[in-house]
Specification:
- There is one protein chain.
- The protein is mainly β.
- It has one domain (1-367): paralog of FGE (formylglycine-generating enzyme) (Alpha-Beta Complex), CATH 3.90.1580.
- It contains 4 helices and 15 strands.
- It has helices at 101-111, 123-128, 195-204, 212-220; strands at residues 17-20, 28-30, 55-56, 59-62, 65-69, 85-89, 92-95, 144-148, 164-168, 283-289, 304-305, 323-327, 346-350, 358-359, 363-365.
- Strands 3-4-7-15 form a 4-stranded antiparallel β-sheet, with no helix packed on it. It has a 4-stranded mixed β-sheet with strand order 13-12-10-14.
- It is globular and about 55 Å long.
């Protein structure tokens, strides 16, 4: 099986940052960008889900089916994407695009919800991930979040702190720091949200977070054994299809897609199920626990029906912070560092942590009653 050679596969920094202090700032657990078919995309249980979209309240209908989940002959794939295994999922609805700032604002206005990034840090939880000689005096509980800040010069890709800054006052309302706002960003995906924030929003809407299996099946859009939601063509060939990093990461972005950060949702063509931005823009949080070796424990012969992931999480690179799966890559993904705009790419999401390139979308079963927008 192929294994990727890009930097994310070679450094801890590209996968998961343990609780660390940078220049005396607050300690926080964060994520870097970060990372021959027997059964095809067949047995669809309903028709009408295609690029034209079968929509209900902004959700696209995704037919059920059976497919090979995970990477097969992808040279950019990582060990955690292997081995491929047969999976069957039932039909469901999925948000046609990522949850936007405007949608999340409606939720907050209706409920008074306060996101994790807006609350003082849990010092006891942070201490659990620090070296034994650390003291509580080393910590600052002031709320904040991690914000992408491109360096002014070339840096080694092993040091993710060269382009991530912890900023007090950064949160979903202030995505670039305390002095920023959501002006002209209403239709951009909400960021600086963590698993708990996404779960609260989904429950308010009468929806849920998608499982990892649902997410991958939906991202494929009816295509069989293709690495991207649009098929085989490389990301830098042909028309622009998603919002990622073009140029030399992290110092030079040529803006081939027209965006230096998040893009408004729906800027690029949808996949075969009418879903937008299943590659790039922001990472999308799923409901499953994360375990990089979970696929190795699964049956390779008979399809697993509607899998929900492992019973608990496991992350050898950071055993202190519970992890969920996130999918889809972000505007920071680049083939030289994080080619996670592929349909099989999977990454750990620290469930208490938000960042400026992490968002989500929701799903619901076909039997559910009408959900809110």
């Amino acid at each position: 099986m192929a294994r990727g050679n890009h930097v994310e596969n070679q450094t801890l920094g590209g996968d998961q940052l343990s609780p660390l202090m940078r220049r005396g700032r607050t300690i926080v657990t964060v994520l870097g960008c970060a990372m021959v078919p027997l059964i095809g995309c067949l047995e669809r249980e309903a028709q009408g889900a295609n690029g034209d979209g079968a929509l209900e309240n902004g959700m696209a209908y995704v037919p059920g089916g059976t497919f090979w989940m995970g990477a097969q002959n992808d040279p950019l794939s990582l060990p955690r994407e292997h081995p491929a295994h047969p999976v069957s999922v039932g039909p469901f609805w999925m948000d046609a695009h990522e949850v936007t700032n405007a949608q999340f604002a409606d939720f907050v206005q209706a409920t008074g919800y306060v996101t994790v990034a807006e609350k003082p840090l849990d010092l006891e939880a942070l201490m659990a991930g620090l070296p034994p000689e650390s003291t509580v005096e080393d910590l600052d509980p002031t709320p904040g979040s991690m914000v992408f800040s491109p360096p002014a010069r070339e840096v080694g890709l092993a040091d993710v702190f060269a382009w991530w800054d912890w900023l007090h006052g950064a949160d979903w309302r202030h995505p670039f720091g305390p002095e920023s706002s959501l002006a002209n960003l209403g239709d951009h995906p909400v960021v600086h949200v963590c698993y708990w924030d996404a779960l609260a929003y989904a429950e308010w809407c009468g929806k849920r977070l998608p499982t990892e299996a649902e997410w991958e099946w939906a991202a494929r859009g009816g295509l069989e054994s293709k690495p991207f939601p649009w098929g085989d063509m490389a990301i830098d060939e042909g028309p622009v299809r998603c919002n990622t990093w073009s140029g030399r990461f992290p110092v030079e972005n040529t803006l081939r897609d027209g965006h230096g950060g998040t893009a408004p949702t729906g800027q690029f063509p949808p996949n075969g199920y009418g879903l937008f931005d299943m590659a790039g823009n922001v990472w999308e949080i799923c409901s499953d626990w994360y375990d990089p070796n979970h696929y190795e424990t699964l049956d390779q012969t008979e399809p697993i029906v509607d899998p929900r992931g492992p019973d608990t999480w496991r992350d050898p690179s950071d055993p202190t912070e519970p992890k969920r799966v996130m999918r889809g890559g972000s505007f920071l993904c680049n083939e030289s560092y994080c080619s996670s705009y592929r349909v099989t790419a999977r990454m750990a999401h620290a469930q208490n942590t938000g960042m400026s390139h992490v968002g989500f979308r929701c799903a619901k079963g076909v039997q559910n009653s009408r959900a809110k927008h």
